[in-house]
Specification:
Structural class: alpha+beta
Oligomer: single chain
Largest sheet: 5 strands, mixed
Strand order of the largest sheet: 4-5-6-10-7
Low-confidence stretches: none
Bound molecules: zinc ion
Strand content: 5-15%
Number of helices: 26
Length: 649
């Protein structure tokens, strides 16, 4: 019998089946709670497996809803969400489970292995971060705070959305749109009273198009000003949000929200995050100044905030741009995938073998993954764009590797979804180099999940990996998509068969690193602002003052006084990034660090690559990434690798 589940999702019976699984689960939870002498094996393990089974049943629906979306998938998906949410909220608030975990944690502290301890640790932490263990009065207040917080976040994004939608700038003079790409001109074009005009808005593609290519500085300034002064009423929301987050953190036993945020992350404390970010600022500034000088040379007058994108584009065109169309013939999809498999084989000794099975679409494929000739996992790929498929690219984990109470081994599986150009009988799917990078990135996530040898499913593969470390394996692998030794394995012209020339690879790297120090400073500005803002209560003008102080180091051009960037910083005020924006750079350092260790060993036959497989990939979420990383490298991550990766000297 196959070790892998058959991919199926019966939409007609889904809700009914879901309800009966949940009913069974609820009964089982009650039964488990009645067990007299609770232990890891008679309580935690079965509870974990209940959870896994529910996941296994639900994942095909969310997958189908993303890749073969129809009215029916939407309907069933929307119907199932509140059912699942109700079930999991009830579980996460069940204080008897929390107490049982705590008891088992102390009574079996000697006999539990590392993975089992981690499962308990993370579950207990989850309860404690939600306050489920506190007294009723505090719980009530926490609930009030949560409701108000989500209201405020929702208002924040609604205000921003309204402001974005309300604005438009109409151009009548053809001269003002000279130099814009045809497609942007076409989207802006409209007719009024028989006259052709052009409409630009604050929606991303439209705004970016004019800021990058629009030659009229006055118009750029208008648009810029409109953009950075959106939703001024959000200032009040920010004040209230920050104060509520602070109150919540204190009720939960932390000094501030930053500390609360770090409790579930890899970074140890506030100081380690801030000195990490400040160190990067110090090391990038000099090169950013040089980059700006190069852009400045092109502009005749001193650069303003609304000029940089425009003049940078001119500079890029002159010196660093690559013509994607020249690259495509070297990146034919099936060759790229085969080449990536070959690369992974040379790096880690893993092998992929195609499996014939019926999936959700004819273009979807599945592969068995072998490690040292042992069947280890299954990978599903769905590479091409089509109607009814959500845009973008992602990895979605399905089965997790674990061992059950009867010592039976379960293998892992994962999906990689991309939106590459569709192939036809006569035309192959030719990728941009960016697509190749994306594919490597998602594959990095997938092997992190699939190669896990962890025995407990809740910390196996990507499960239980800290938020600021999740992107480490994906970025690690993505870096190889710029390496000549890797590209040459598969990048050959699909018609002429000749290999991609070295010069073309060099150009890819140069183009990637164009204005990299300036981009780094910008990301660091956001990260330091976000993190510092959550270390104590900031209110009103203090927020702007904080931003101004940070900009002294991170911003090389004076930002106009009217710029209220914070009122549009949805990542942290309406998304999940509060006191966590630093994670992008954090994971990049981990990945760059290990990447260069492998490069410096000549890539293939690298010892570090083997250790990476053994410690990071097999280890999954079984330990904090700070521990795994140290085990791998014998030291802390080195920021110099990230500078090297970005070509910052
Ligand atoms: Zn990713």
């Amino acid at each position: 019998m196959s070790q892998f589940l058959k991919f199926e999702c019966n939409l007609k019976t889904f809700i009914e089946e879901l309800n009966s699984i949940l009913k069974l689960n609820n009964n089982k939870v009650e039964e488990l709670l009645k067990v007299e002498k609770k232990s890891y094996s008679n309580f935690v393990k079965p509870l974990q497996i209940l959870d896994e089974k529910l996941e296994l049943f639900f994942t095909p629906l969310s997958h189908i809803n993303s890749v073969s979306n129809t009215d029916e998938t939407q309907k069933v998906y929307a119907e199932s969400l509140p059912i699942i949410t109700e079930y999991s909220t009830k579980l996460s608030q069940n204080i008897d489970i929390y107490k049982a975990y705590k008891e088992i944690q102390s009574s079996e502290s000697i006999s539990l292995n590392k993975e089992q301890k981690r499962v308990l640790e993370l579950n207990i932490l989850n309860f404690e971060l939600s306050g489920a263990h506190l007294n009723d009065k505090i719980k009530e207040r926490l609930q009030e705070i949560n409701i108000r917080k989500s209201e405020l976040s929702n208002n924040f994004s609604q205000n921003l959305l309204n402001a974005t939608n309300e604005y438009e700038f109409i151009i009548k003079d053809e001269k003002d749109i000279e130099g814009l790409p045809k497609s942007d001109v076409e989207s802006a074009k409209f007719k009024e009273d028989g006259v052709v005009k052009y409409k630009f808005t604050l929606q991303m593609p439209s705004y970016i198009a004019y800021m990058t290519y629009g030659r009229n500085q006055k118009i750029r300034e208008e648009l810029y000003k409109a953009y950075v002064t959106r939703s001024p009423q959000n200032a009040e929301i920010i004040d209230e949000l920050l104060s509520l987050k602070n109150e919540m953190s204190i009720l939960l036993g932390f000094n501030n929200y930053a500390e609360y945020s770090l409790a579930s992350k890899m970074a140890k404390n506030e100081q380690s995050v801030l000195s990490f970010l400040e160190n990067l600022v110090k090391n990038s500034r000099e090169q950013a100044i040089k980059e700006l000088e190069e852009v400045q040379k092109i502009a005749k007058e001193p650069l303003k905030s609304f000029d940089t994108a425009y003049y940078s584009e001119i500079l890029k065109k002159e010196k660093y741009a690559i013509d994607e169309e020249l690259y495509r013939p070297y990146f034919e999809q099936t060759r790229v995938i085969k080449g990536m498999f070959k690369f992974l084989n040379k790096l880690f000794g893993i092998r992929f073998e195609k499996v014939e099975e019926k999936l959700w679409d004819d273009k979807a494929c599945s592969y068995n993954l072998y490690l040292n000739d042992k069947l280890t996992a299954r990978l599903y790929t769905d590479m091409e764009a089509r109607k009814g498929k959500r845009g973008g690219a992602w990895m979605h984990n399905w089965q997790a590797h674990y061992i059950d109470e009867q010592e039976k081994e379960y293998l892992a599986s994962a999906f990689i979804v991309c939106n590459f150009p569709a192939s036809t009988k006569n035309n192959p799917s030719l990728l941009r180099h960016d697509d190749v990078v994306t594919l490597f990135h998602e594959m990095g996530h997938a092997i992190h999940h699939m190669l896990s040898s962890v025995k407990e499913n809740e910390v196996s593969g990507v499960n239980g990996v800290e938020w600021d470390a999740v992107e480490f394996p994906s970025q690690f692998l993505e870096n190889f998509a710029y390496e000549p030794k890797v590209l040459k394995l598969f990048a050959s012209h699909y018609k002429m068969k000749e290999r991609i020339p070295d010069k073309m690879i060099e150009k890819l790297v140069k183009s990637k690193n164009f204005l990299s120090a300036s981009a780094m400073l910008r990301q660091l500005e956001f990260s330091i602002f976000d993190f510092t803002l959550h270390t104590k209560i900031y209110k009103g003008d203090e927020i702007q003052n904080l931003l101004n102080t940070i900009r002294k180091d991170t911003s090389l051009i004076n930002t106009p006084k009217y710029n209220k960037f914070q009122n549009g910083f949805a990542h942290i005020f309406a998304g999940g990034y509060a006191a966590g924006y630093y994670s992008y750079k954090w994971a990049e350092v981990l990945s760059a660090d290990v990447f260069f260790s492998v490069i410096d060993e000549g890539i293939y036959n690298s010892n570090i690559a083997k250790k990476y497989l053994e410690i990071i990939l097999k280890g999954g979420g079984s330990s904090s990434m700070s521990i795994l990383f140290k085990e791998l490298q014998g030291r802390e991550p080195d920021i110099n690798s990230l500078l090297r990766l970005n070509g910052i000297k």
